[in-house]
Amino acid sequence: MPEDVVRFNQAKDEEKGSFSNRETGRSYDNMSNDTACDREESAMRSGADAVSSGDLPSDSDSSTRWNVTSSQVDSQSHEYPTRLNPGG
User: Helix or strand or coil: residue 36?
Assistant: First the structure.
């Protein structure tokens, strides 16, 4: 059974909207810290792993913006981009 992973990366000041990376096929949702905290909580409730290269939204300043992406990791550790359903 695939494992759900939600990744949180702090957005740069110039990054203002959601976007897709053509090389990886991964879509990023650019969101406020409050919205990212809600996504983090939702991920934890659903059993997904919430990972970040630094602090998670719940540990960050309220002015921080985040680029958030969701994926699934299969039994061979291959990661596939997915999008969680609202509340997901």
Answer: helix
